[in-house]
Predict the structure of Raftlin family member 2.
Amino acid sequence: MGCGLRKLEDPEDSSPGKIYSTLKRPQVEIKTDTVYEYVLLDFSLEGSRPTVQYVSSLCELSQALQPYYTQGYVLTTLHPIILSVGRTRSLPFSLLYRAILARPRPSKQVVSMCHSVPVLRVEEWPIPGESLTDDTVRALIDRVNSSARGGVRFVGSVLQQAGGGGSNGRVPSPRRGYRSPPHTPPCTPPGEGELEDHSPTYSPDLRLLVFFHSWAPGCAPLEALACQYHQGALSMRVSRKGQVVSALEADWLELTAAYYRKGWSLVDSFVYWDTPKGEPVPRSLEGLFVYEERSTAPPANDTIVVEQWTVIEGSDVKTDYGPLLHTLAEFGWLLTCVLPTPIIRHDSDGNLATKQVVFLQRPVKTSSVPQRNQAGSMQRDVATHSVSRGVGSPRTHPTEELSPTAGGIGGFPVFGGGYPSALSHLEEGGFEQDDGAAEVTCM
């Protein structure tokens, strides 16, 4: 008998998802002073459909989302729905993106909106070097901090190919770069320079779209002023079929706990999914999380991490994390980051399914400090407890689609209808809880 890392799940495992939390379920469902409202919107760079809005470039998101910003919603994260990493050709829907917007539920009290209506700013940054590396990401974080000192707040980023095409996080195999002359990309504000001043080598293809919130002078909320951004380790064990990642496992709570205890927020992530040609295929993958530190010293955060399958039926997203997100919003849980993965399968009906990792946080309540389970580890699989129903039954609990007249704004459809019973699929003990030693499980 001893303690060791859990065995990596079978790549063919079709469990609908797992939930990890620093709290037990009754504590997760404690009401707080803040209730959030979410809007989930899908955008495509390759054409519009009834449930998807077309944009020729993600630089257009600021204008596309403006009707929601006037209602008090702000972008919390943007992510590609499908990653074609390690595959010889891009998969369908590789240019499909999900934008998640949130707002605190308006109170009856009338409050001036000046301080709460930011402007979404999009900048296009070239990637130095031949591929995305630790050094590249550190340079990007340094530049984010430089921008933050000017009074803006970092929202997140998306990796793209030059010319507006989406790479969806796919980093091409390294090839010889070229020295890019100083220039200002189309959606970068005038005066923005390159990442370095000494003419580094740039990839001819890769660009990082970086999203910020900015405010009119004197209108920024206190917590948005003088934010700093820090990197944190991100490591996963993976199983592959050839070059393609088919399963992954990470100690999410262990990786993030120290940062959440400081009151920091997880806002972005970078993973080096691709293996350069000629190099051995690794059994683990590395990357970096990006955390936001506020100047107002907020309390520590509890967290929920969800590994969830998203199912695409036809050309529409039918099953995803939306129902759970709307349920948790009632208890003050804020989504801050979604990590898409290249794990892609087909369900029993032939629908495309992909796994995503969703991160939510909420300030710690003194009455919600969990007690250690003396009987052993609290980490358990949730294979029989669906969050919003999984790969095996995509039609059982589809994501509700609302028409523009039933909640949409400016002609956009709204995804992820709120199902109050979303947590009911997780019976007592369904959460995989941090017991102080999330890195190991007693076996």
Summary: DSSP finds six helices and 20 strands in the chain. The first strand starts at residue 3 and ends at 4. Residues 134-148 form the longest helix (15 residues).
